Amino acid sequence: MKKLLLAFLYWVISIHLQAQLPVVNTRPRIMMNADLRASLLAKKNANTPEWQALLAEANSYSNKPVMAWTPATVNTWDTNYIFYSYQASSWEDATMPLAFAHLMTKNSNPGANPTVYSNKLMQLADSIMSANRRYRSQINTWNHPLSRNDYYPTRHLGRIIGTIYDWCHDELGQARKDSLIHLMKQWFDDIRGNAYQNNDRATGNYFFGHVFCVAHFGYALGSDDPRSQEMIDWARIRFDGTPSPNVEPQDIPDNNVADAWENGYKSYKVTAYGFPAAQMYTGLPAKGGLQIQGWSYGATNSVKVLDYMALVKMATGEDLIDTKLSWIQDLVKAIHHSLLPNGHEVDHDGDWGDNYGPYLNHHFSERLAFVLEGKPLGEQAQYFQKSEYKPFFVYGNTVNGLYNWEKFYFPSTTRPSAPFDNQLWYSGFNQGYNLGIGNRTSPVFLMRNKWADSTATWAVFRADAATYDDHKHFAGGSFEICRGGSYILTNASNVGKAGYPLLGDNTLAENTGANNTLYFNDFGDYQQTSSAFIGGQGYYGKDDLKAVQMDDSLTYVRTDLTSYYDKSYYPEINLKKINYFIRGFLYLRSSNLFLSYDQISAKNSTNPQGQYKKHLRWHFLKNPVVTGNLIKSSHRGSDIYVKTLIPANPDITVVDESNNPDNTSGSSMNYYFNSPTWRTEVKYADNPLDQIFLTVLQPTIRNTTAPIIDNINSTDGKMKGAIVTANNGKKEIAFFNTDLTPLQTGITSTQYTFPNTGDIRHTICGVVPNAKYLVTVTGDEVNIVQDANGNRTASIAGVLQFMTSAAPCPNEMTFSNTVATGNYKTGNTISTQNGGTTQIPNGTNVTFDAAKAIILNPTFEAQSGSVFKAHIGGCN
Description:
This protein is an alpha+beta fold. Helix 10 (205-221) packs parallel to helix 13 (294-316). It is elongated and about 120 Å long.
């Protein structure tokens, strides 16, 4: 026992020491170690195309003067110079190829070995230090290269200064080293004292931009200055909370990056004014790998996080990638499932701040393959990068493609590759019943009907109500559908003014009105009325999942989105005008059918504008055609049919969003509201307080006839649903429990009749989870009863599925003696025996249904208390 205790203590001490590994004494150590440098030199000596492109770019920069930084030149774009441009990003564009060219071409003699590339890097460093001195009095304003836009440039300046200091260390000379050391310490104090998001909102791109910057300073300095460890520890505590006596109390952050996937991270609801302690909770929004800020801002920030982990490993030997392996593996799964069937677009949720559409961030996926090499899922990350991702070109250039230095540094032709298991669904959220916040991950659900097919259908359902950071849109309950390369059900905020797929000047509208969910307007009686809150949802919701099931057959989710319509001031919550909004979402994979069952209730309005507005919105890229309760929209090679079954006679309005009537603020807000999309608003004509919507959606190939979609209800009123013959010929019956409580009481018994012709799959949502049921089918009647000895078992989410197959239709049937309960059909005639008694006993229910004739001979008797029906129709 004593030996075991000593071994445990040794293990704990070893782990603790590993987290405090010192900076190695060798250089270069920023992004580099001896083995990696040797492999890069091998590429250089082989004169690979990647090296040739990198060298050509470095040679070009080496001949350009450095433009002096001033507030007047800060936005100047002049390719004859090395210039600052957007938040110092163009300085970094020049730094990296010059640094690699210097490192690869300098000789190995001890001491200084300057090259034309190091000389240019030192000119850039001198220019940066000159700008700092000249505009030092304007630090914390936009008139300083560090503090512009609330210290946004830190994400670039750290790598620039750290790389120059480390990779040109022998060439700098002591005076320039001393000046750069002074600069790094001064800027560190500026960042820790004044930078936006320096101590909170760890999922924000500002926060980690500061971490990335300061970490580069610390690891570049190492033993050259005693404050380097303070910088390293300041960055580390913001990454994973590792404590250090070197971090001043005022510099201990409220949260760290790892909180979002390991420890717990507060949503805006928790940090809002007035919410009671009983509602306080923390989520794990990054667990599962989906990006809190979407695949544009979020993935760009994740690039920095991955680079930070690699930086620590190169500079100290500590492998943070191993300690955070599960999260990085989740990133691989998430990007794999977020990739659209065309191989270059990804889920377009959130803001997209570039000039093109929602195309894969190649910088991100390449790093995943790099950091996971030799680790579990590393082969799949490489497969994704080399086989699944398909570059998209505009004017001959890859959209979101790698820089020349990245092409030289990250890829490997010998890295092993292996395909994924190609599961057809994904979410970090757990499955089951009465989940609430569940395992605290974001309840976003990705699905598709097949892989390796450019015409496959891909979809996402956003069941979340919590908001953790900016750049996220208020899209609770929304879903989008893409077939091949066509978003045939889209949101309106991520489609550029120039039209899809080029994003151009997109609206970045985060409001609910731009999404496919409930639009609710209480005329400002409770809700906030600014542009961001059009449609009713805001920052202060809480995830509340009632049922989740994902498998190869279906995806089913029931989510209570009522809290998404809260605003921040808790005491006013009792004034909220919406009682509830609950959405049930069902995707039936083999038939490629989507169903939405919505339960909505609002308070009575005393506002002079009338009852509060509430309707469902569906957004399309092409002008939809409305025929009765059926909507059709076409785009490229695809159609989508959207049929409203409840209400039976909906009021459907088509709105051209290039002149969006949601904009009541004037032409100055056109940029935010107007997009080249159309929407339909589906509503009850009389706008009752309580409303139910049942909608069926079918994506299909262009110019395909509409699927056959009709209502079907249980005879006891417990279920409402749809009976559908899909475009691929498959027949489906899908029911939803009509119980209005968010956590529904599972159905224990029900019955319904249906046209029992051919193979039909039945899906019943809202039964008792994990319970056994006896399902009996007699003719065209289905009886379902909870029974411990039943022949069917409900899923953990309360879904029951079974198939029915109609028996071959007989041409003739003749009955004698006693007739049992049933619906009897033929293709010609039904008769009773002539000369003997044919009897329908008391308590039985019999239907004769023949195509041509029903012959009842004189000895036929339907006893009192029985039900007998005769119908001419037959099997067809």
